[in-house]
Amino acid sequence: MSTLPIAPTSVVLPHGSLPAPLQAAADASAPAPREASAALPVLDPAQVRIVLCTTTHPGNIGAAARAMKTMGLRHLALVNPRRFPDDEATARAVGAADLLGHATVHTSLDDALQGCRFIAGLTARRRDLSHDMISLRASAERTARELATPGEDGRPAQAAFLFGTEMSGLSNAELERCTLLVNIPTNPDFGSLNLGSAVQLACYELRLALLGDHPIQAYPQPLARHEDMEGLFVHLEQALHQTGFLRPERPKRLMERLRRLLTRSRLEHEEVSLLRGLLKSFQVSLGSALPPGIAADAPRSADAPKAPQSDSSRGQIGG
Question: Are residues 86 and 183 in the same domain?
Answer without folding.
Answer: yes
